[in-house]
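Backbone-to-sequence.
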């Protein structure tokens, strides 16, 4: 048996078969190009239809992605049947069914993040622009894709989290409601009239114009500190109209000014005698003794 001659005939047959399929391949390439154009047109149509609605941006993005994916699946299926005339949609689905288990194991993380991304986009909570904390990551949701969520830190770093992590873990959404409560501890000296101090602090906080309307200011005498009686002061801020930390800064400054004007002391924590004795004695202190 002439193996070289057999190999030559096989190579020639493969070459002739490839040449015979060149027209089909060319048509398939044209179909792929048309599919690319159709996907862009379909996305533009989706943008035009959803642009006049109040649909959330993440849902718009999900709809764009699903439409593009559907167009590409149809286009690639048509191109495959042109190159391989014996291939049909039924046989393709049957082949996918046979390899579904292997594909599932191989791309488990990808599919998990994909479905997690779909569910994240469908739920109403955690939208683009929200301030969130996920698994120790605090920042603003900048982008949600079908695979990952982009969170921009307030120090401008970007963290990219897999959607499965965002979906499985606890998510704290700071901007779910515009009105947020803030608080601060204020200490006054032990010889202070506590009723007067409470009134001074309350009047000071209520004078801040950036507080949320219709919300009460709470002032509670909480505990006896090491050098002061400590008040817990609580107020509400409308974060849609005011800076959360800016309002807190104004409240603290206003309380300090009001206590100074009322001659109410905010004492420093004192150092106990026991702690002082534990400190090393300097040469000057030894000479003075």
């Amino acid at each position: 048996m002439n193996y070289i001659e057999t190999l030559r005939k096989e190579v020639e047959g493969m070459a002739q078969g490839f040449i015979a399929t060149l027209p089909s391949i060319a048509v398939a390439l044209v179909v792929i190009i048309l599919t690319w154009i159709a996907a862009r047109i379909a996305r533009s149509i989706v943008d035009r239809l959803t642009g006049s609605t109040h649909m959330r941006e993440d849902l718009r993005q999900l709809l764009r992605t699903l439409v593009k994916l559907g167009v590409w699946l149809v286009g690639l299926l048509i191109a495959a049947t042109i190159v391989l005339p014996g291939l049909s949609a039924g046989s393709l689905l049957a082949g996918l069914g046979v390899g579904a288990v292997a594909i599932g194991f191989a791309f488990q993380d990808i599919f998990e993040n994909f479905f997690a991304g779909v569910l994240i986009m469908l739920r109403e909570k955690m939208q683009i622009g929200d301030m969130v904390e996920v698994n120790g990551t605090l920042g603003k949701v900048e982008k949600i894709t079908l695979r990952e969520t982009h969170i921009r830190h307030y120090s401008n770093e970007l963290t990219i989290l897999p959607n499965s992590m965002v979906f499985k873990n606890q998510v704290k959404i700071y901007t779910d409601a515009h009105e947020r409560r803030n608080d601060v501890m204020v200490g006054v000296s032990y010889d202070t009239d506590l009723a007067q101090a409470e009134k001074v602090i309350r009047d000071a906080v209520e004078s801040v114009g950036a507080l949320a309307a219709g919300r009460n200011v709470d002032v509670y005498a909480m505990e006896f500190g090491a050098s002061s009686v400590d008040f817990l002061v609580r107020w509400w801020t409308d974060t849609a109209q005011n800076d959360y930390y800016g309002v807190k800064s104004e409240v603290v400054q206003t309380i300090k000014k009001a206590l100074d004007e009322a001659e109410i002391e905010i004492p420093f924590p004192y150092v106990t005698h026991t702690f002082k004795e534990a400190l090393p004695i300097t040469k000057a202190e030894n000479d003075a003794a």
